[in-house]
């Protein structure tokens, strides 16, 4: 059987969630754009006494369908396509029934384009793990798993979520229809009178004076359409029910919420069914089978490569049905593709550990040798993975100039400025939107006084985290200007170099994790590669620094002195003029938002 090596799966075991969700984002953005176009370009509905705006269940249904599309897209794309098709059909029927209120032809074409996009997104396969994973799957051994006698009911959580959503949809529908029926029965015998508008308590209600001098409050769609002093026709029913003749009692709008909840419920059921089908496919055919090391305890299973070194993280982990009581790392057999969000099973000590869900990253699992030791190592002294020598495959992933053996060469790194200024401009937007919702209308300079400190904090954070940090190094040491602090260090003063998945690289200077932080490009950046420039990723920068430290330690052990001087001393730069210009421009521009 093929052993699973670290080099076999290097670089492809992780797949960012946003790549998987790209199709859902595309459909959701398109649906949101269609909703905005309808709100902007649809002919306005005029309510008159001769042609009142009565309940319109079909219109409520199509509104609920299109409102559900952006939300359901992140749960089930097949259901999203059906909702988009239902919206288009309902919209066409409504326009046929209401020719004067029909949408422009190009807008109906946009509705059809949304349907096509939704069905194409269903048929479009999500991005895979790449050619490396395909090569590995083609060259490794394959076996068929023994099918357990009773597989769990996969997707139970999604089914449990669908139940209250469906019950809520039924409750909203029943309540709305019952209220409409009662109101219609009361209005059938209502008296029609002419009333004078005396006040606008709010934008959705009128205060009117009825014949005889009595005052009443009437709910309307838009109070501004009925000026104070004008006369309106009012239906007066028993029990204090007052409605405009042009706007009868209407609860059909609640049907939109019911359709939205029902769509989410159906999407949850479809997601549960798809989850179960994907899980059962693991046992229906041959799967890659590789030798691995396994740690399993309490239903939690961590998988390690056969060449894993003490202190290295697990490749992946998942939760199994069986609650194995072992607390040490043992040899086992992995069935399936060792990657995040893929379904895998493990056989250890003759027992098949059936998964409860897909695999996730191994960074949450104990490190190899960290619990009970490895097969040949005690567990009382586990090295730090950041202090281990780089593997050949890790060195090959670095830039050629960083692998250069010349210790005199000074290498430099600085985060891409475009990314830094993008953060400066964008990170204050959510806070200002919240302020705009909470605060009343303000004079312009009063709003500027509020936006100034918010944008100042954003500029300071962007400067400290992205624009200020830089690092230079050679074979003698490293010169660092971090987010906080600046130091010139020889390699013997560097305890470890770590990088997280967001691109932050920490150069630790003691055993407690304190050090200097430098920002690099993340493994899966939000900005496209063309905008982030040819910049090192966090893993590449950390690997280059670790490689330089390893070589310096090797020269020190061999008592070779071939480096003349350290890199230039760090100089913490002052904030550039462009940053102050960005702060001033943001303050003045965002002040308009608060008005």
UniProtKB/TrEMBL annotation:
This chain's protein is named PH domain-containing protein
The yes or no answer to whether the keyword NAD is present is: no
Q: Which UniProt keywords apply?
A: Membrane, Transmembrane, Transmembrane helix
**Does the entry feature the keyword Membrane, yes or no?**
yes
Which species does this protein come from? Dactylosporangium darangshiense
Residue stretches spanning the membrane: 24-41, 61-94, 156-179, 251-270, 418-438, 444-466, 574-594
């Amino acid at each position: 059987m093929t052993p699973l090596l670290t080099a076999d799966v290097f670089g492809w075991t992780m797949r960012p969630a946003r790549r998987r969700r790209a199709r859902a984002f595309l459909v959701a953005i398109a649906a949101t754009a269609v909703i905005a176009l309808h709100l902007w370009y649809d002919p306005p509905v005029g309510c008159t006494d001769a042609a009142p705006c009565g309940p319109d269940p079909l219109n409520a249904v199509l509104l609920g369908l299109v409102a559900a599309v952006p939300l359901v897209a992140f749960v089930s794309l097949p259901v999203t396509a059906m909702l988009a098709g239902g919206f288009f059909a309902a919209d066409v029927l409504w326009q046929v029934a209401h020719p004067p209120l029909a949408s422009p032809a190009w807008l109906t074409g946009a509705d059809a384009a949304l349907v096509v996009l939704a069905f194409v997104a269903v048929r479009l396969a999500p991005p895979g793990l790449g050619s490396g994973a395909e090569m590995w799957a083609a060259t490794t051994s394959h076996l068929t798993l023994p099918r357990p006698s009773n597989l769990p009911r996969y997707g139970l959580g999604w089914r449990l979520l669908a139940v209250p959503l469906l019950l809520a949809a039924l409750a909203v529908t029943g309540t709305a229809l019952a209220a409409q029926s009662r109101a219609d029965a009361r209005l059938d015998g209502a008296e029609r009178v002419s009333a004078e508008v005396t006040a606008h308590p709010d934008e959705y209600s009128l205060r009117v004076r009825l014949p005889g001098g009595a005052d009443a409050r009437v709910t309307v769609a838009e109070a501004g359409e009925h000026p104070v002093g004008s006369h309106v026709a009012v239906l007066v029913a028993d029990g204090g029910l007052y409605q405009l003749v042009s706007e009868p009692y209407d609860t059909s709008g609640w049907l939109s919420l019911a359709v939205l909840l029902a769509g989410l419920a159906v999407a949850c059921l479809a997601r549960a069914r798809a989850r179960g089908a994907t899980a059962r496919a693991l046992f229906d055919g041959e799967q890659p089978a590789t030798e691995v090391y396994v740690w399993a305890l309490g239903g939690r299973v961590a998988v390690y490569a056969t060449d894993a070194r003490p202190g290295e993280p697990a490749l992946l982990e998942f939760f199994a049905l069986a609650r194995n009581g072992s607390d040490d790392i043992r040899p086992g057999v992995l069935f399936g593709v060792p990657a995040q969000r893929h379904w895998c099973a493990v056989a250890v000590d003759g027992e098949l550990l059936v998964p409860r869900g897909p695999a996730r990253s191994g960074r949450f699992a104990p490190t190899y040798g960290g619990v009970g030791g490895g097969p040949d190592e005690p567990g009382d002294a586990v090295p730090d993975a950041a202090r281990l020598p780089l593997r050949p495959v890790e060195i090959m992933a670095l830039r050629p100039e960083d692998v250069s053996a010349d210790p005199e060469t000074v290498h430099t790194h600085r985060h891409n400025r475009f990314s830094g200024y993008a953060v400066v401009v964008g990170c204050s937007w959510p806070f200002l939107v919240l302020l705009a919702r909470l605060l009343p209308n303000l004079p312009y300079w009063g709003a500027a006084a509020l936006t100034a400190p918010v944008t100042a904090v954003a500029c300071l954070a962007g400067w400290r985290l992205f624009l200020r940090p830089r690092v230079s190094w050679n074979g003698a040491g490293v010169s660092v200007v971090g987010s906080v602090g600046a130091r010139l260090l020889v390699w013997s003063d560097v305890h470890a170099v770590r990088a997280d998945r967001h691109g932050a690289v920490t150069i630790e200077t003691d055993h407690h994790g304190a050090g200097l932080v430098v920002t690099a490009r993340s493994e899966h950046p939000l900005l496209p590669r063309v905008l982030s420039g040819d910049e090192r990723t966090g893993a590449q920068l950390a690997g280059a620094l670790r490689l330089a430290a390893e070589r310096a330690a090797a020269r020190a052990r061999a008592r070779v002195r071939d480096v003349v001087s350290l890199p230039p001393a760090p100089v913490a730069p002052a904030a550039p003029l462009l940053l102050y210009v960005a702060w001033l421009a943001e303050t003045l521009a965002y002040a308009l938002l608060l008005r």
